[in-house]
Amino acid sequence: MAEQDYSFTQEELDEIERLKAKFPTDKAATLRVLWVAQEKYGHVEPEVQQLVAETLDISPAHVHGVATFYTQYYKEEMGKFVLDVCTCLSCQLCGGYEILHHLEDELGIKAGETTEDGMFSIQSVECLGACGYAPMLQVTNGVYANNLTKEKVDKLIENLRNGNMPEFESMVMRQNEKRKKAVSE
Amino acid sequence: MAEDWRSYEPLLIPDIPNLHEIDVYEENGGYQALRNILDNREGKWTRNNVTNEVKAANIRGRGGAGFNAGLKWSFMPDPDDRPRYLACNGDESEPGTFKDRNIFEFNPHLFIEGALIAAYAMTIDTIYVYIRGEYIDWVNIFEEAVEEAYEKGYLGNDILGSGIDIDLHTTYGAGAYICGEETGMLESLEGKRGYPRIKPPFPAQKGLWGNPTTINNIETLANVPLVINNGAEWYQSIGAEGHNGPVLYGISGHVNKPGVYEYPAGMPVMDLINEVAGGIRGGKDLKALIPGGTSTPVLRADQLEGVSMDSNSLREAGSMMGTAGMVVMDEDTDMVDLLWRISHFFHHESCGQCTPCREGTGWLEKVLLKIKNGDGEIKDLDMLLDLTTQMEGRTICALADAAAWPVRHTINRFRDEFEARCKKSVHAVA
Ligand SMILES: Cc1cc2nc3c(=O)[nH]c(=O)nc-3n(C[C@H](O)[C@H](O)[C@H](O)COP(=O)(O)O)c2cc1C
Ligand code: SF4
Ligand code: FES
User: TM spans, by residue (chain B) (predicted)?
Assistant: First the structure.
């Protein structure tokens, strides 16, 4: 592979300035700038960490420490779609592991791996704050897919293969009848 | 607890379509508490009076510890030339908890108004709202509300012509339960790993960048405008003795109608499970309940009779209110599997600074896995119980306690089930 040049565009640098302005120190923007970088490169491998350190004029060791502490940063290249299946308490009770194992069977990989075509990675993750809509998964640090069944998972995979991301699903409180109606209309 | 919960109308998340839009919020009395305070700040609503009213209401912190919010505010030192901060905790990572996201999505301005009132009371001019990174969709929804509040002059310079300046910055994490611990969150806000800090010094003395800081949960702050509008006495009339106000109950697990429900504090547990959440799936029997997130001790069905969701009643029953994230388990639930998974969570999330926590959570998980796989011995159970006492109260933050309690109580309360999974110990055979 050709040597890749790691740099931010002017537009990204403007965004980074805006993020820095939220805090009294530049260091405080470390998490946010790592996010900007991951958005761009799909991971925060050492070269990307280096870029973040240079951009914020902070030590690479600091950036490395942060990048490796938080689970949502991808320390290496991942599949185009990362499926984070929650297997924590409530999801475990409601079949989270069945969903995980179904995905593993369908995609022919285990949690922690990526399909050969680079399309999908699967991870087994901790509670995502959607316990009442279990079992569930999150797609590439983004949208939540709730109340999963094996059929729903198959459909999701098919949609993703066709480049269709699921849409954000609003989970209105059952007590909020009027609001529920307004959302469904 | 009043028996009239069936006619209760939600206050934190009322049934009003599009309430997340600022115009709709205003039409329904929104930002009146803030206006009222700013108009009467030389009279009824001096900064101290606001704090005292909130203290009298006794809003128990909804982040898990149940501390009186107004009392916490009163710990802030007198203003000097240092910056002062309010850090709002929207990390929401305690398994079983999924309520604060409802506030961001359905009534964000109630929270913003509460945070503004808190900032006024404590003479704070910078508010940070820290949201877990996985909630990126809710971050974006919330940021729209913040933008509206800036446009309408509720945030920024010279708020509503009062001469008071308050800014609100939203930011988010990147996956780490420990950033919900208040000082872990401060470290993360400073752009570092979320290593909890040794206390003292407490955040009110030395918080963000060494300056006075108060930390409150999102739902806690959403209660504040209700108190200002209706008074502490009114607030005290809702809920249970010593635990008042509305509560967002998150109900998950083996129930027919899981979800978030708003009812007064002190709700009868069995009413919540059987009526509100529609009972146990498949007509099965209830086996156990974790009442307030993973860290709170599990209760057997027979321990739940007459228990209500408030700190006194739950303490008497042998557990805690926590985040009111109720995890319901049916008769077929495998408690050994469940406890192993809980221990896996805490081991995964331990930040590793303290030896009893780093090593202890690892051992808990390892031994529980052995028992789960049928390779454990009865003496391993006693070893686990012994381990929990060695982890408790010896660490920088409460994660080690939170990891130890479920192990102790689940084993003690379901001892037969754990023993049945163990091989007979050498002594028993001999
Ligand atoms: C390990 C650990 C995780 C925590 N996670 C959260 C959390 O996700 N959200 C939260 O509001 N409080 C959490 N807390 C409690 C906070 O430390 C703090 O008590 C709370 O945010 C204070 O707000 P309150 O008084 O309004 O509840 C956690 C505590 C511990 C020990
Ligand atoms: S108790 Fe555990 S999570 Fe808390 S600071 Fe110590 S090692 Fe970290
Ligand atoms: S346990 Fe899966 S979302 Fe909470």
Answer: none
Section A65-80 average pLDDT:
98
pLDDT of residue B426: 56
* Chain B residues near residue A94 by CB distance under 8 angstroms: 252-254
Answer whether B188 touches A (CB < 8 Å): yes
- Give residue A3's pLDDT: 66
Which is nearest to B187 in space by CA: A56, A161, A18, A28?
A28
Distance B346 CA to ligand 2 centre (A): 10
Number of H helices, E strands in chain A: 8, 4
Is B238-330 CATH 3.10.20.600? Answer: yes
Domains of chain A (ranges, CATH numbers): 10-69 (1.10.10), 81-161 (3.40.30.10)
- pLDDT confidence band for A128 (50 / 70 / 90): very high
Is B21's Cβ below 8 Å from some Cβ in A?
Answer: no
Note whether B3-235 and B238-330 share their fold.
no
Amino acid, single-letter form, for residue B150: Y
- A100: chain B residues, CB-CB within 8 Å: none
User: Phi/psi zone of residue A49: left (φ > 0), alpha (ψ -120 to 50 degrees), beta?
Assistant: alpha
* DSSP code for B79: P
DSSP label at A27?
G
CB-based contact B306:B316 (threshold 8 Å): no
Q: Are residues A145 and A139 in contact, defined by beta-carbon separation less than 8 angstroms?
A: yes
Ligand index nearest the alpha carbon of residue B98: 3
The residue whose two tokens read 């607030």 is B235
Residues 19-78 of A with CB under 8 A from B: 22-25, 27-32, 34-35, 62, 65-66, 69-73
Amino acid type, A24: P
Q: For residue B237, is pLDDT > 70?
A: yes
Q: What is the CATH number of domain B3-235?
A: 3.40.50.11540
Q: Do B260 and A94 touch (CB under 8 A)?
A: no
What are residue A13's phi and psi, to 5 degrees? -65, -35
What are the chain A neighbours of B96 within 8 Å (beta carbons)? 89-90, 127, 131
Q: What is the pTM assigned to this prediction?
A: 0.97
Q: From CA B219, how far away is CA A124, in angstroms rounded?
A: 29
Boundaries of every domain in chain B? 3-235, 238-330, 335-429
DSSP-derived 3-state class of residue A100: helix
Q: What is the C-alpha separation between B333 and B331, in angstroms, rounded?
A: 6
Return the bridge partners of B243, or none.
B240
Q: Does domain B335-429 have CATH number 1.20.1440.230?
A: yes
Residue of B96, B194, B261 with shortest CB distance to A175: B261
